[in-house]
Amino acid sequence: MAMVIPGKVAERLSSGLKRYQPVLESAKARDVNESDTSMIVTDIVADVFGYDKYHEITRELCIRGTFCDLATKIDSKIRMIIEVKAVGIALKDQHTKQAVDYAANEGIEWVAVTNGPEWKVYRVVFGKPIDQELVLDIDLLALNPRKDDDIESLYLLTRESIVKSALDAYHDHLQATSRFFLAAAILSDPVLDVIRRELRRLSPDVKITSDELKDTLTAQVLKREVIEGEKADQAKRKLARAASKTLRSRKEDSSADATSDEPEVGALESSAEAEPQAKS
Q: Is the pLDDT at 267 greater than 50, yes or no?
């Protein structure tokens, strides 16, 4: 997914990586504690990601009697909770669950878990139960400051990305190209109709129903893991909602067009009045 990054932001990201990679390497070698790691992460969020250190980064967000490690806010609204672990600790599911639980209680959509070098960013799924989707997984020490793809990945963590909804767009792109959504799209009626049409071109005398085609695809072509389970069901529901929305939009457009084609009552009356005058 190509992104347009402002030149000044790209330069800040590149120079920021060059500045903080040695800092992170040193912290990792010294195995600094969580408090010191949090100080480094705060500086990175400000200097590299572009947040105002004194107005847009806070440690004062209290959730269920516990203060979260860090949170970013824009226009006084919390945008992301950041769970910080010591630089030497591997990020685990339990760290993610804790941060996601905090975010869910406050209706916050984005969560990041980091130990300094590694950043895992999740989109909170407000369902029953609460779930999360991994959207970004990067290691700052593995990024190349001169490589465009690496700068694009880092850009997603910036203030500018949040303001322009670039992280949301990237999440939507991942969903649309995930194996679950692709499977759901293949098994949808419009796509099945296209496949049937192409097969008829190949064998005009062979009659294949949509049900037969779907059975073959699910039994012999697609893997079971992409058509069954919660993620597969979510994909089907989202695809169905999108199709329904498109259908409603088309009906509204058709209704509007039909209405615009009908002459107004006033215009009919004026025409009726004007016609005798034209004849006299």
A: no
Calculate the dihedral angle through the C-alpha atoms of 175, 181, 185, 187, rounding to the nearest 10 degrees: -170
Q: Are 31 and 87 in contact (CB under 8 A)?
A: yes
pLDDT: is 182 or 188 the higher one? 188
Q: Which helix (H) or strand (E) holds 62?
A: strand 62-63
Residue 151's H or E segment, with its range, is helix 148-155
Rounded to the nearest 10 degrees, how much is the dihedral formed by the CA atoms of 192, 197, 202, 208? 60
Which residues have CB under 8 Å from 166's CB, separation 6+? 3, 155, 156, 160
Closest of 137, 45, 58, 54 to residue 91, by C-alpha: 137
Closest residue by Cα to residue 131 from 110, 106, 102, 100: 100
Could you tell me if 155 and 203 are in contact, meaning their C-beta atoms sit under 8 angstroms apart?
no
Amino acid (one-letter) located at 39: M
Q: Looking at residue 274, what is its pLDDT?
A: 46
Mean pLDDT of 178-207: 83
Record the tokens describing residue 179, joined without a space: 């194996």
Distance (Å, whole) CA 86 – CA 75? 30
Joined together, the tokens standing for residue 32 give: 């600094």
pTM (2 d.p.): 0.70
Query: What tokens does 275 get?
Result: 């016609």
Distance CA 46, CA 51 (A): 5
Distance CA 141, CA 135 (A): 19
pLDDT single digits (tens) 26-64: 999 999 999 999 999 999 999 999 999 999 999 878 766
Interatomic CA distance for residues 194 and 266, integer angstroms: 47
Residue 204's pLDDT is 85
According to DSSP, residue 221 is labeled: I
Q: Do 40 and 114 meet the contact criterion of CB atoms below 8 Å apart? A: no
